[in-house]
Amino acid sequence: MKKPDGGPAFPRPASEYTKDGSCADGNHAISAQTGMTLRDYFAAHAPITFQDACDAIGEDGYSYKEAFTRLARMRMAYADAMLAEREK
Question: The pTM is what?
Fold first, then answer.
């Protein structure tokens, strides 16, 4: 089962384009874009810092890889909480 991601954060619907794939205003030929997911947007803007991740690991020593992994997990947990709150 796919985890809810909130759908596109900045979609560009196909209705903005002509049938040949060019922009309706005659600019460059590009395809419709779904954009990043809302979950990714929330994670990118989470108020969680690298220092927060390091503090969560503790002072027993850690590698940057461990700290970045913790940071990513914390930011995604924040994003999931934001999406869950929207469902209420």
Answer: 0.67
